[in-house]
Structure formats: C-alpha cells, structure tokens
Design goal:
By secondary structure, the chain is α+β, with helices and mostly antiparallel strands.
Length: 767
Amino acid sequence: MAERTKLAAGLAAGTLIAAWYRRHRRRDPWEAMLDKALPAIVVIRVNYVKPFDGEQAGSGSATGFVVDFERGLILTNRHVIGTGPIRAEATFVNKEEVPLTPVYRDPVHDFGLFHFDVTKLRYADELQRAEIPLAEDGAKVGLEIRVVGNDSGEKIQILAGTLARLDRNAPLYGGDGFNDFNTFYYSAASNTSGGSSGSPVLDSRGRAVALNAGGCNASASSYYLPLHAVVRALDALKRFETPQRGTLRVVWRHVTCDEARRLALSPAAEALLRRHHHGDDTCGLLCVDQVITGGSGSEAGLEPGDLLLSCGDKRFPDFDALESYLDSNVDRAVQLSIERGGASKSIRPARAESLHNLVPSNFLEFGGGVLHSISLGTARSGNLDAGVGVYVAFAGFVLDVAGVPAHAVLTAVGDVETPTLDAFQDAVAKLGDGARVNVRYYAVGDRFNAQVALVRVNYRWFKLQRWRRRDPHLNEIPVDANASFRACWESTQIETNKTPYTEDAPAAATFQRSHATDAANSVVSCICKVSFDVLHAVDGVHDWHFAGCGIVVDAERGLVSTDRNTVVTALGECAVTFAASVELPAKVIFVHPTRNFAIVRYDASRFDGVSADRRPTSAPLRPRDLSVGDALEFVGLSRTNPDQSLSQKVTVTELSCVNIAQAHVPRFRALNEEIAKFDQVLNKSLGGVLVDEDGSVSATWSCYSFYSWSDEKNYEAFHAVGVGVARKVQAPFNSGSLGVCVRCGSLYAVEGIPRRSCPSLGRNQGR
C-alpha cells in the first residue's frame, strides 16, 4: 500500500511539473512572430490583359502582404502589378478572396501597391486585422530572416536565411522586360523561386526589413529590395497624393574606393570620402554608368565614368540620398558636383524630370497590336531616346503580316515622321480601310539598321482605339471590381477615314511558259499563289500565316480552288498572286467540311481589257478515276521561288485512302478521300496540278496537315487527289443555282451541301 501511495504521489508531482513547464516555458520567438504575420500575407493571382512594356499577356501568381489594413493596402512587386491593364485578386490565409485595384507602381524600383475593399471581407475578425510594419532601417549583415510567401505556387512556404550583403547592385534579369536600377539590393541564400515575388522579408520581431524581388537560378541567392522608397511612397498615398519621383535619365553604379581610384579619383577626394564614411563597409561613391539619350543628364553634360561628389548640400550621397534629393526637386534645377579625370567640377544645373512621365500610361490598339511610347526601361536597355518613336509591345495582325516584329520601334508612316504616339495615331487615322502604306522601323538594340515594311490597314476587323490609365487615389476607388477596372483604364475609339481604299488599275500578269511540253505550258496561267492570314485563333488552327497553290476554276467569276492547309478557316484575310507580279485580295466563299479544298474569289474585273496571254485562264478540269500506271505531268509553284513554275513527269504507283489522326487540339482533317502516290518524289513546291497529255487537269497536288503524337509537332504531306469534288462544287456557279452574297461575298446555297440562309440578304438574292 505504501509503494502505491508513493507511485501516485510521484505521478501527481510529474503532472504538476509538466503543467508548470508548459505555462512557463519560453516560446520560440519565430513561432510567435509567424502567428501574427501569416494573416497579413496573401496569395495574388493576376491576369495580364494586354502585352505592355516588354511583358506579354497571360496570368501568374505571386505574394503580397498587408501594410495598412484600415486603408486596404497590399505591398508587392512592380513586376507583379505591371504597368498595363490587369485584373487581380488576393486570397487570405482564411481562404477569403477579394478583388484588387492597382493604386501605385513605381516607375523604376520593383514595388507597387494594390488596394482591396476591407468591407468585402466577411470574416475580417479571423484575420485579426493583421498588418506587417515596415522597418526600412532594420536590415544589417548577419540578421536572421524568414521569407514567407507563395513560393513555387504553394499556398505558404517559409524559407530561412541570413542577410549577407546590403550593397549589391541591382540584379540584371536581361531581356526587354522590367529591370530595376539606381538602388542597392540586399542578398541572402534563401533560395526563393517563382511565386514568392512580393514576399515580406521578416525579422524575429515580425517587421518587414525588405521586399523579396528575385533570385538566381544557378545558385541559392535571393535578392531583396530595400524599403526606403516604399515608405516614402506609402506616406504620400496616405495623404491622397501621387508620390513624386525625379530623375536625370542617368543610370548610376556604386563603386568602391579601389575602383574609383582606377577611375582617377583624386587622393584628396578619397581622403574626404573615407572620413565621411568612418570606415563603413559601404565606403564608396556613385559613378555614372549610362547617360540615356534625350534626358536632362545628357543636356547637363554628364558622361559615363563621372564620380558623384555631392548633390545639393549632401556630400558623397548613396542611392537613397540621391533619389530623395531628386524626388523633392521634380521640375526644378538641381546642382551636382562631380569629379572627372581627377579634377572636380560642377556641371551646369539640370532639371529633374518626373519619372512618371517616362513610363507609358496609355496605348493605341492598331490592327490588333499594342503600341505605346518608349519607356525609360526600354530606352535604357536599347540606348534609345525615350521621347522618339513608337514602341511595338505586340505586333498584332496587321504589323505581323507585314513582318514588323514585337519590340520594334516605328519611326514613320509613309512620309510622315512619328516621334510620338499621337503623331502615329494621326497618321494612320487618315488612311482608309485596305490602304497600303510603307512603315519605317528598327529593332530595339539595332537602332542604326532601319527597315521598311508594307502594311495593309485593316479597320474592318480591328478598330483604332486609344486606352489611357489613371491610377485613382485611395478616396476615389469604386467598390465594384468592374467599375474599378474602368476607373483605371478608359478607352476612346478613334475616328478614321471612312472611304475604303480601292485599286482600279488594270492588272496584267507575265506568265513564264518555259516548260518542255505544251500541256504544262497551257496550265501555267491557271495556277496562282494563295496567301492566308488567320485573324483569330479559332477552329484549332495551329499557325497564323499560310501559303499554298491555287487553281483557277472559273476565270470569269474569279474563283480559285485551294487546299484546306492553305485556307484553314473561313475567318481570315486572303490574297491571290499571279506570276509573282499581280496580287489581288480575295474572299473565302466556301470551305468543305470534310474534303481538303476551299474556294476563294478575287475581283476578275481587274483583268478587263488585258490581252489574253496576260490574264488568268480557267483550268480545264476533267474528273476521272486515277489508276495505277497512269502517266501524268506535275505543274506547280516552287516553294522557295513562287514566281517560278515547276514541271515533272510522274507515274501513279499506288492508290489509297487518306488517314489522318486526330490532333491534340481538334481541328480540320480530311476524311473519306482517295489519294494517289507516285514513283518519284516531286520537287519541293507549294502545290499544283497533274495534267494529262492533252493538257486537261485530272488531279491536284494538295497539302495535308497532320499532327505527330510522338514529338507533338505539326507536319505537312502532299498527295494527289482527283478534281471530281471540286468540279461538283463549281458546277452550281455555272448553272446559276449558287448564290454569293452581294454584301459579304459568302456562299449561301450549294447543291449537295447543307443549305444555309445568308445573314445579309436571304436565301434567294445573289449574283
């Protein structure tokens, strides 16, 4: 009994000791900090509506954190917010989602601020109205940190690290997209990755000492943005003001004393510099790394290699001191003292420009493309003048067809110089739909290599529209998400020339009849090149531009038959070219749903009054069943030189049924079609016809597209197919039982094909 009593007493004592330990044990400070910080950290999902300023349209996810709960402000990266139109939403730790409205994006540094409507949070009490305080001076080498955010697309990841550097020059990510400059960055080996952009860099007290911005794929290094500029911008927004940002259009680089000495820093200046820093690890000074053309720094005479001794009354300023000085003197003259070649000098006063004026806040939609002024970042990467030329953020349909790529700069439309977006808008607004005009441009990074492209204006499908951005103040943001988007971006449709462009001059083609046989020469005028440009990605089309061979089946009415790998869908712009000398616009009037051919129509009246040998002729179609052993002659267009026709003798060796597997993305594929194969491999061509000895066309050499599941690529193959089906569709044109809409030019009745009424005129009207 005594032993049992002792055992019970021991257990009771152990229980009391454990309870006392749980109450009095010292809690891990990181655990307590994270409990308070996590409710303030959000996952941000962004849809980038339009390509803008070197970035493409798309979607992504990132991180942000609440810095002012009452005002609904979330801090994240500038490359997350972007400068173009976006839609974004934030997801809090309790799974609540709220729409976001951009209220500020810094012109240079990688930070921006979203606003959310606090009243939309139905369970705000669960979040403890949490916000993370900013400690812009809290960073120091050796500080233990936690980076908390949506790393690698996960909801929450907590990465540990130790600050190793506070004086790293801004990382250069490359490309035409956003790159920060004129600031220090912090670095640590926390190994952050995609999705962690905008994460807070927290100390043990739960304060944000920096903002996670990027990292290095080849190592564990992560780069953090200091918060000095963030605090200044946040204070201005709380006062319902736009943060002032000044610049000389100069890229500065921090150099150490040893490097400055190699740049001819005088011993006297170095002695003053070292006394000023008192042996600080960041002892050094700012050096001019690049002077951007057209800026006030260039006008003041600054040159690369100049060492900055003072700005105003501030001696040996660092990035933050120089930035603060320029921000407080926007549109005023500033005084800088520099040393060049070992001699001190004061440059003439330079006006501090507003950085907000050097970042595009509006764009023009032209031909499906996005055009805006040259941003400061693009001017920096391409060594350009930010005020001269129009930047192509997205080429769209019209410019892409003409061969003008994205990230090009347009400098003239016809004879009109276009140094600004307004000048370009005025120039193209005077052109009518279908007008052709030369556009002069150069590629960013190759500005001395001017190029010219022939552009065909298209206002039928793409209206000329101007979009302007306005970042609202905190007291002006609408509650509704759609109204909020409209408050930030407003559009205006630009009036254009209502007179469509027409060409009435007679067309005359010069056909090269240099083949060995009369049969081949007789059909040269029956074939043409067909070009097709897809307007919008519909029907599973796998590319934007197609070219193939067409056969004139009715020269009087301008009807041309081609394959479905050339005219891949009815929604596109088509043109036919005869003898590489006459190009005429064409309309798609019929695409067969299961067979590999389509019919387009050009204006045959353009050849009125032209001699017979210089105008297209109808192909003599003779439908018949091909047989093994048939001797035919191929006549077609060269793929590399379309103005040259090819001919070759062939013999049918095999007949089979076409068998094309379904593609990864469903699209047209020919079905139930008999094809012929030959004893020889035909020359590489765009297609053509197969003629008998008497010159009659019995088959076409048509292109078939198929998808390879093994390597997930699209391929082409040519096969011979009889002209029976094409002749059957052509017959109603001659008999008058086929209607073509006078207004839209579309086919509305074909014998043997399901009828449909024309939306413009009805079933029985046509021509």
